[in-house]
């Protein structure tokens, strides 16, 4: 374990190190190695100056070789999690800034290069009222550089009891090396209940029906891990808990409040409104507001790496000069960040704030079109094309917010649907890697490009496309979506709001039609598309027949002459 003082550049495949800093520090560390893998960076222990804020003291992590790269995440004194950050390439930078308070700060960091996170073979979704989970290889020692995430979800209106019946991880006072972290919710960004290591039998309890468990290990000293069981029990009824449901999608925001909850606060449906009073709710058993994200007085805020849509549901007495009822505001937020939509509800009541969260997604799709007008999509699958035919592809964002742009950052082709080891880049970091690729300027919620059809060698029948998509705020000047091609060496990327990927295919060359599918219908289609091939076959058959007849006549003539006692003679011309 090295002890770098203020900044360093690392090229090791993995490394663990402690950082000690005092006041007024501003130090940068860079990690870079030509590995064609991503970097997992873990701050397993951090100690800032007491009462410091994110504005004066923090760790900022950038997704690239410099601080000009996009901001990947931030760690502060009040960070309620064990920060684990994953780069999108083989370089990463982090900067630690401290304020002027005289205090000994301490941090423990380790990183390692890892393959695609989709290949993790542990963790997963656990549902039902009870269940079990174990560390990889249990009761044998767990592997090095393990990172597993289990999401537990039990029936609605219940809470989760998690008990580790056997637990043995590497022992450390601050659990810096191997640890298990338990979160009260579905994310690992906040809501840390506890972090444990060593030998014990810890128990945890959630406040709702969702919980997340993380196992993280380093490169040395593996032990047998853990075996755990979870159960659930009904939540106690409480009139204070808001009966409010918020659902966010890329198109709209939906707020549902029960009449019984409003009545418990002394209000009914006539006392409720959102920022724009002209937006009326639908009233049945509940009071339901449903409207597009950019309407009904909803405000939008861009903080550089996410976008938040906010509206306020107000409850107040009407028609009176005075009131003795509490004024209540329900602040609803749809936060679009990374690869999910985070829905947050704040209920304010005389400065008392309560909140609840849930998870959703943007809706992005990719399709092929028959021409550059992008008016008629191709519905057939597989999509049969001619070799070197121009193909037109469009990525679509399905959202009611008109101020968003879509940008194709990277697009990769593969002969396999799971995008295994054999791949070919069409677009990388916004740059055209294939000579035939032409990208179109961003238009509203669409990103478009064209390229010439090709096939992989070694007789692969299909081609699949997978594209990484960035979504930016159109009102932001010089956003990543408007910068186009940026090389890795000059990666000066403004922040984008959201990143995902989408897949299209398979594409098959028409010449491979019969080998790709032996069905009768495809054979007929092949014959219909190739009348010249049938004509050539019949001509060849006729030539072969005539040749056989001539050979037969020659043999018969020679035979008769031989019988007559004559030797082999040259045939007379007729």
TrEMBL record:
Residues 6-114, 122-233 form the CUB domain. It holds the Pfam family Zona_pellucida. InterPro entries: CUB_dom, Sperma_CUB_dom_sf, ZP-C, ZP-C_dom, ZP-N, ZP_dom. SUPFAM superfamilies: Spermadhesin, CUB domain. Keywords: Disulfide bond, Glycoprotein, Membrane, Repeat, Signal, Transmembrane, Transmembrane helix. It comes from the Eukaryota. The chain crosses the membrane at residues 535-557. This is CUZD1 protein. It comes from Eolophus roseicapilla (Galah cockatoo). The gene is Cuzd1.
